[in-house]
């Protein structure tokens, strides 16, 4: 994995400084290249062709590339190109991208199976061609003020340029609504993210930007439905196995995350079936409600892997470090154990496979089950039932029943997309209005929901938003802070539309989520693992708020509110109510804490 950056003027010093800012993403090598039109920066984590030949920026004729990611089918593409007379001087996928672009221009990305964010400088056409993979596994930020164009893997590198940055009210509202900033938005005005499945062309002469989508998941799902159901069902397991094998290609050691849940357990089992002495890694917690490490150990013993585990307790220095290094406010607290997991894993291997996206693709979230439950609840009864949930006692345990029941009734909406977003929300419109005052923007101006009425509607919503800018962003951020590359077999572009094309009862049957995936997993894992209740990967924030003087100070100290972005008095009410155990405000307070510490750490 790597870090990339560049801009449309010549400044070698700035390009080198940007590269240094991205050093954690690529500790093995550094490259900068400039001509009269552009400056390109690259930091390299060597995974394929460890020699100096793989150094970037890499040239092929008048094309120059900086690339972050992996193209898993690069060997197949290379063989095709060699048949037509192409020659290669490296063993990298980077060089294959350049040859593919030279032959097909922007259309080349349709042939790639992988994860990527790259920029190709086409000197003949005087343009920059940027692309981001289909599902957003690799990040790509850009700044544009009508004249200057800057791009990077991380927003922090863009901030090094002499640009004016203001907090974007829409990004701020999205953060407090869903705990992440979805879509193309970022926390700053004039900085955007290239959406997943999109290309961007910047014309150096005219200073014009053109963004186009090259991947339409909905169309791919419809195309799969033209194939018989039997054929589709028979294809899924072999395709998943192939997706795993493709992601083991590397010239460095490879391991696997293993939480003990069915997703990561199945991925690890598929690897261990063909590869001996394979290494797996997990994080545990002292709190039983949050600890899955015993299950991870049982899986490791069953499939025969060399297993590593580390236990996590509250660590104020870790919190300071991780939150302070974020590009922008990010409220998924599981970034902390993901960071520790990545740190431990990187001490042994350079690449790890994960079970991420299993829930989105195969239908595993509690909110999907809530969609099923809601069919049996008369809308006329919801308000009265919501009042009854107000007296439920708050709990410090992970996703307690009081929390789930409260979310189900208090955030109920007849439109299933809004119901789903509300289920996933932290601050609803009412509480966000109290928090943000004049900067408040209602949810219906932040998101546009259709009138879909099936499970696929919710899955697509998650894949386009939550998966791309929460789950995948979390893993990329935490792993790259530790120079670890993470690969995601469940997001193979051949597999995703195939599974999503299936009738709903293959994903949720009765009130069992991930029904089909569990049927596959049962061939490789014990029933204890396959059938156990989903727990998720979260941390005991509620307990930490009571234990940590540092966290409470960042929430209560007025010096942390100089940004004037939130209502201090309202936050104090939330904090006092939580500490008195009158309400469970942990998730709300965590988002405020992250904003305060991120802003404070990045203003010094």
Notes on the protein architecture:
The protein is an alpha+beta fold and 604 residues long. It has 3 domains: 214 residues, Glutamine Phosphoribosylpyrophosphate, subunit 1, domain 1 (4-Layer Sandwich), CATH 3.60.20; 204 residues, HUPs (Rossmann fold, 3-Layer(aba) Sandwich), CATH 3.40.50; 65 residues, no CATH class. The chain is 43% helix and 15% strand. The strands form 3 sheets. It has a 6-stranded antiparallel beta sheet. A 6-stranded antiparallel beta sheet has the order 4-5-6-7-11-12. A 5-stranded parallel beta sheet has the order 15-14-13-16-17, sandwiched between helices. α8 links the parallel β13 and β14. The relative contact order is 0.12.
Number of strands: 17
Number of helical segments? Answer: 26
The CATH architecture assignment of the largest domain turns out to be: 4-Layer Sandwich
The assigned structural class equals alpha+beta
Helix content: 40-55%
Which geometry do the CA atoms define? globular
> What fraction of the residues are assigned to beta strands by DSSP?
15-25%
CATH uppermost class of the largest domain: Alpha Beta
Query: What distance lies between the first and last C-alpha atoms, to the nearest angstrom?
Result: 30 Å
Strand order of the largest sheet: 2-3-1-9-8-10
Mean of the pLDDT scores? 92
Q: Which oligomeric state applies?
A: single chain
Question: What gyration radius follows from the Cα positions, in whole Å?
Answer: 24 Å
Query: CATH homologous superfamily name of the largest domain?
Result: Aminohydrolase, N-terminal nucleophile (Ntn) domain
């Amino acid at each position: 994995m790597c870090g990339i950056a560049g801009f449309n003027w010549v400044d070698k010093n700035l390009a080198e400084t940007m590269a240094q800012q991205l050093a954690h993403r690529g500790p093995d090598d550094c490259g900068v290249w400039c001509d009269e039109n552009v400056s390109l920066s690259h930091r390299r984590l060597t995974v394929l062709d460890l020699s100096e030949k793989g150094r970037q920026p890499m040239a092929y004729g008048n094309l120059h590339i900086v690339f972050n990611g992996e193209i898993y089918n690069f060997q197949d593409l290379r063989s095709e190109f060699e048949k037509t007379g192409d020659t290669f001087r490296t063993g990298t996928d980077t060089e294959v991208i350049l040859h593919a672009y030279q032959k097909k221009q922007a259309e080349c990305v349709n042939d790639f199976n992988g994860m990527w964010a790259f920029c190709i400088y086409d000197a003949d056409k005087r343009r920059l061609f940027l692309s981001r993979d289909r599902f957003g596994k690799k990040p790509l930020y850009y700044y544009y003020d009508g004249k200057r164009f800057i791009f990077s893997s991380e927003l922090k590198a863009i901030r090094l340029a002499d640009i004016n940055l203001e907090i974007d009210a829409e990004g701020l509202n999205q953060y407090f609504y869903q705990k992440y900033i979805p879509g193309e938005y970022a926390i700053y005005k004039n900085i955007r993210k290239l959406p997943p499945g999109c290309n961007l062309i910047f014309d150096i002469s005219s200073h014009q930007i053109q963004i186009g989508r090259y991947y339409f998941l909905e169309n791919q799902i419809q195309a799969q439905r033209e194939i018989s159901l039997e054929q589709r069902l028979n294809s899924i397991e072999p395709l998943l196995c192939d997706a795993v094998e493709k992601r083991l290609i590397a010239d460095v050691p490879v391991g696997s995350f293993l939480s003990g849940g069915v997703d990561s357990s199945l991925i690890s089992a598929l690897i261990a079936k063909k590869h001996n002495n394979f290494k797996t890694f997990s994080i545990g917690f002292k709190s039983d409600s949050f600890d899955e490490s015993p299950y991870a150990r049982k899986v490791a013993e069953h499939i025969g892997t060399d297993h590593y585990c580390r236990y996590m307790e509250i660590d104020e220095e870790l919190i300071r470090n991780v939150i302070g290094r974020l590009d922008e406010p990010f409220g998924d607290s599981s970034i902390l154990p993901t960071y520790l997991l990545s740190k431990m894993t990187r001490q042994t291997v350079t690449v790890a496979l994960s079970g991420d996206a299993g829930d989105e693709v195969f239908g595993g979230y509690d909110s999907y089950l809530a969609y099923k439950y809601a069919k049996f609840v008369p809308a006329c009864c919801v308000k009265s039932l919501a009042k009854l949930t107000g007296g439920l006692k708050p709990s410090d345990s992970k996703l307690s029943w009081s929390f789930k029941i409260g979310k189900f009734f208090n955030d109920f909406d007849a439109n299933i997309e809004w119901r789903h977003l509300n289920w996933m929300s932290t601050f609803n419109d009412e509480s966000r209005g109290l928090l943000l005052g004049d900067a408040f923007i209602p949810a219906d101006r932040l998101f546009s929901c259709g009138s879909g009425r099936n499970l696929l509607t919710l899955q697509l919503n998650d894949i386009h938003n939550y998966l791309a800018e929460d789950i995948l962003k979390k893993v990329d951020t935490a792993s790259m802070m530790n120079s670890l590359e993470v690969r995601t077999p469940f997001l193979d572009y051949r597999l995703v539309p195939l599974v999503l094309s299936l009738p709903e009862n293959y994903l949720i049957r009765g009130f069992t989520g991930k029904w089909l995936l569990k049927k596959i997993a049962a061939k490789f894992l014990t029933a204890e693992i396959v059938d156990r209740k989903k727990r998720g990967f979260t941390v005991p924030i509620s307990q930490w708020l009571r234990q940590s003087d540092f966290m409470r100070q960042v929430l209560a100290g007025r010096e942390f509110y100089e940004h004037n972005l939130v209502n201090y008095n309202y936050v104090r009410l939330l904090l006092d109510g939580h500490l008195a155990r009158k309400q469970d405000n942990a998730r709300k307070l965590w988002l405020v804490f992250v904003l305060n510490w991120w802003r404070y750490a990045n203003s010094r």
